[in-house]
Design brief:
Shape of chain B: globular
Number of strands of chain B: 20
Largest sheet of chain A: 5 strands, antiparallel
Radius of gyration of chain B: 24 Å
Helix content of chain A: 25-40%
Largest sheet of chain B: 6 strands, parallel
Structural class of chain B: alpha/beta
Order of helices and strands of chain A: EHEEHEEHEEHEE
Number of helices of chain B: 20
Distance between the termini of chain B: 65 Å
Number of helices of chain A: 4
Strand content of chain A: 35-45%
Distance between the termini of chain A: 28 Å
Oligomer: heterodimer
């Protein structure tokens, strides 16, 4: 099962490596990991996507909670939540393809944020599935590069992950 | 009070109540050693290798419950300490290790004796700190002691760059009385609903057993465990780390469980319908093959660390909390529920347990011409009236000490259970002896293990810590040899030492007393003589039956009811003499 875990962690040097180190030491897998400071500069928020059986995910959450720098965490799978990932894609564009590509970008509600005579850079946000779907739609040979932020997530409604 | 960084470190340790620092100087900690020189409150024990410092601090911690303190220099000093830090981590021993670091300005430049200590130790500490500001030293030390000693204890490393302890930078000092960490709140009492569920199971169990571990020792829950066990009347088994928390001479005690546990303990576990696990972690050396582990049992698991619960074995009733408090809750709950032992069920269960006991799985050949290692431990038990602190190294001798020295008190049995660190016993014994100068302290070891930290014999002389080294010398890496005999058709690959030193001469060279024993009848007198020499460290080099094995044994991939027992007890005399 895929789980999205949101973590509030002390914004200190080495905090990220404690989390990453835990995963490698215990053989858990990380599908993606994003981290940045929050509105409270002393805290960072991490979104970690992992896969594993229920038992493994339970252990992952317990082990994360055990890290002294982890202040609070939540398994977003247990709540109704929203996930977004940002993707930037650079695509080679031959003349005849440009219109068609533009309309596909529109369908996916993406934006073209850089244009040259031979390329587009497309910005797109959405669930990781949606971004996968876009990539599948585009001719593979035309893709120059893809950069993805990894998933971030937040629960719906008034409740939230805060101190 | 205005102090420089080095003085702040030492003053903080003093204010924390630290008696001893175990350490070794070097470039990055010279300022600290200068501050140590200028005071008498915190005593420094100079070891001969940093691994020895960590194990000595560990022995001190295990025997007292107080945190052990270590001071090492950067680079090799720090890396030498890592084995001892990992040893303490695996057994949840409170320890604070201060390591020097190269000056802040050159961190990251591959400076002389630079190593990323915070990075290296991250997976084997409870937490670690890099101090970047002289004004943060006192607070960091307070936090380190708080984290190391609370919740599930463990080692904490504080890495301090040399410039932070510089003599010319003085700042105002006060040691914090308390420290709050928003991200760290260890559990205390158990959840009431869970306690209630546990009590319901305890009331109806027909074939129950208490399985207690090192957590009861660390959590000072011994008295409560005894009270609970006597109230319930259940058989009690303990892990290697738990020995002594429940008296081994109590009639409810059925021996250690696991790979080299007793037949009765493992069979009782296997056939039980309810396991009350307290401060134990279902380690692989305890469970054997997981799929076959205790097939009929419901499990109640009390532990301070939620991550220990359902890690390897799924449990029905998890209770997170301090063992001392949770056991008290259980006792109160049982009394409230007017618990009475179901005499009929108890009688038939005990009858079964006693039948398993009656095969006497620990019996060995007492008429052997060779010295049986088990016999040595039994004799040592008698000579010390069961009251010694016993440290051990790792291997066969460790198991024999655990099997044949019945500990009646917690904190008397000091060994590296989790990491299995050879070289632990001697330095640990020095730490124990410093903490308990009037007690008998024995280090049970083997000819291979003792050589891994033998340099600490020199420390034992310098600080006058008279310990007794019981070297069960079989000229083999005994446990490796045993596994090779059982699993590799006796291909003894590198488990034999062609050359070992003359331990008697070696002991004498280090300024101690050395005695060699090669006949069973000499064992008792030699032990008596050694323990009577109160002010000398004595090295007893005892040449034991070379091919003796540890029984019972659950081999890899087998379960509790599938034990290898000593065959034809009393007829295994055909052993070669060394």
């Amino acid at each position: 099962m895929r789980h999205v875990i949101a973590i509030l962690i002390e914004n200190e040097a080495g905090a990220l490596s404690r989390v990453a180190g835990l995963f490698s030491a215990r053989g858990y897998n990380i599908e993606s990991l994003t981290v940045a400071p929050t509105e409270d500069a002393s805290l960072s928020r991490m979104t970690l996507v992992t896969r594993g059986s229920e038992d493994v995910v339970e252990q992952i959450i317990k082990q994360l909670n055990k890290l002294i720098d982890v202040v609070k965490l939540i398994d977003l799978e247990e709540t109704i939540h929203i996930e977004r990932e940002l993707m930037l894609v650079k695509i080679k564009t031959a003349d005849k393809m440009r219109d068609e590509l533009r309309s596909v970008v529109d369908i996916f509600r993406g934006k073209i944020i850089d244009v040259t005579p031979t390329s587009y850079v497309i910005e797109m946000t959405g669930t990781s599935d949606k971004l996968d779907a876009f990539i599948a739609t585009v001719d593979k040979n035309s893709i120059i590069e893809v950069v993805r932020s990894g998933a971030t997530g937040i629960s719906r409604g008034e409740k939230g992950l805060h101190l | 009070m205005e102090l420089n960084g080095a003085q702040i470190v030492i003053q903080s340790l003093k204010d924390e109540g630290v008696e001893y620092i175990f350490g070794y100087p070097g470039g990055a900690v010279l300022h600290l050693y200068d501050a140590i020189f200028q005071q008498d409150d915190v005593k420094h024990i100079l070891v001969r290798h940093e691994q020895g410092a960590t194990h000595a601090a560990d022995g001190y911690a295990r025997s007292t419950g107080k945190p052990g303190v270590v001071l090492v220099t950067s680079g090799p000093g720090a890396t030498n300490a890592v084995t001892g830090i990992a040893t303490a981590y695996m057994d949840s021993i409170p320890m604070v290790v201060i390591s020097g670091q190269v000056p802040s300005a050159v961190i990251g430049s591959d400076a002389f004796q630079e190593v990323d200590m915070v990075g290296i130790t991250r997976p084997c500490v409870k937490h670690n700190f890099l101090v970047k500001d002289v004004t943060k030293i006192a607070e960091t030390i307070k936090k380190a002691f708080y984290v190391a000693t609370s919740g599930r204890p463990g080692p904490v490393v504080i890495d301090i760059p040399k410039d932070i302890t510089a003599p010319d930078v003085k700042v105002s000092y006060s040691y914090p009385k308390k420290v709050e960490m928003r991200s760290y709140h260890p559990a205390t009492t158990g959840n009431k609903g869970q306690i209630k569920k546990a009590i319901e199971l305890l009331l109806t169990a027909q074939r129950p057993v208490i399985y207690s571990g090192g957590g009861v020792v660390l959590g000072e829950g011994s008295q409560e465990l005894i009270e609970l066990a006597h109230l319930l009347g259940f058989p009690v088994t303990q892990t290697l780390m738990g020995l002594g928390a429940f008296p081994s001479t109590d009639k409810q005690f059925i021996g250690m469980l696991g790979m080299h546990g007793t037949y009765e303990a493992n069979m009782t576990m296997h056939e039980s319908d309810l396991i009350l696990a307290i401060g134990a972690r279902f380690d692989d050396r305890v469970t054997g093959k997981l799929d076959l582990f205790c097939p009929y049992a419901k499990i109640i698991h009390v532990d301070i660390d939620p991550a220990s619960i359902s890690k390897t074995v799924k449990v029905g009733v998890p209770i997170v909390g301090e063992v001392k408090l949770v056991i008290r809750q259980l006792i109160d709950g049982l009394k409230e529920a007017k618990y009475k032992i179901d005499k009929k069920a108890a009688e038939s269960w005990w009858q079964q347990v006693n039948q398993w006991r009656s095969i006497q799985c620990l019996e060995f050949d007492r008429n052997s011409r060779a010295i049986k290692p088990q016999f040595v431990i039994e004799q040592m038990y008698e000579v010390t009236r069961g009251e010694a602190f016993v440290t051990s190294d790792v291997g066969q001798h460790q198991m024999w000490a655990a099997q044949y020295y019945p500990f009646d008190k917690p904190r008397r049995w000091i060994n590296s259970g989790g990491l299995g660190t050879m070289g632990f016993g001697l330095p640990a014994a020095i730490g124990v002896k410093l903490a308990h100068p009037d007690a008998d302290v024995a280090c049970v070891t083997g000819d291979a293990s003792i050589q891994m930290c033998i340099q600490e014999l020199s420390t034992a002389l310098q600080y006058k810590t008279p310990i007794k080294i019981i070297n069960l010398n079989n000229n083999y890496l005994g446990m490796v040899r045993q596994w090779q005999e059982f699993s590799y058709e006796s291909r003894y690959s590198h488990s034999y030492m062609e050359t070992i030193p003359d331990f008697v001469k070696l002991a004498e060279a280090y300024g101690h007393v050395g005695i060699r024993i090669d006949k069973p009848e000499d064992v008792r007198p030699a032990l008596e003589k050694a323990f009577a020499m109160k002010d000398r460290t004595v090295f007893l080099d005892i040449l034991t039956d070379r091919t003796e094995n540890v029984y019972p044994m659950i081999e890899t991939g087998k379960s509790h009811h599938d034990m290898k027992l000593r065959v034809a007890i009393g007829t295994t005399t055909d052993r070669e003499l060394s």
